[in-house]
Request: fold
Amino acid sequence: MSTFPYRLVATDLDGTLLRADESVSGRTRDALVAATEAGAAHIVVTGRAVPWTRHILDDLGYEGIAVCGQGAQVYHAGEHRLLTSLTLDRQLAGLALSKLEAEVGPLALAASRDGLEGEVLIGPGYRVQEGPLPYVPYEDPAELWAAPLTKLYLQHPTLDDDQLTRAARETVGGLVDVVMAGPGIVEVLPLGLSKATGLSLAARRLGVKAAETIAFGDMPNDIPMFGWAAHGVAMGNAHEELRAVADEVTASNEEDGIALVLERLLSA
Reply:
């Protein structure tokens, strides 16, 4: 077996490492173990904040550094502590929200609070995806802004995800960043924040460079990570915007797309 060509394997979670039932297949687990035994570090880079990520990392036996919250949080899974955390300017976010609603009409809102135990707040009319992830409903808009936030989530009654993302970028793109992270998940982030931001910080801690990194993802929020890494691999189920900038496209998350690439590189 030849030396594995990368020192860092960066994987998104939803739609990439995880299957629809939030599990990781045995084949993909084995491929990641083989890559790490060959000298590479595996790092999770996810849009999920730490409270929605921690249980998955614990199940994987993952004890290294993870990048959470679209790059806002660098988290040490083994020590269960935040190494860095960047919050959204609430005054600026409120201004952006007002400008956007003046353009497209009322939005349904949710928000992720900062910290290891940061709650996800769900406002009236926001469509929650079925699953085990905890959240707290709110009615009073003041509750949304009562504590530091890592991000806002937006939904519109008629615009689809792509349309809402474009409208938000055109209207408030100079105030905040806007990304689409999954079905029904359009997020407002601090300006300049991306998965590449958090990944570069984590890689520096690991002593690894962008040129030594392979990254896997499925949604437009993974585009900056692909731009940073030496090699970007889009899953077979990936959004067309990510596929357009990927160095290659593998099989879907349900078909062990990560494992197929890692096995090929390990046996080359």
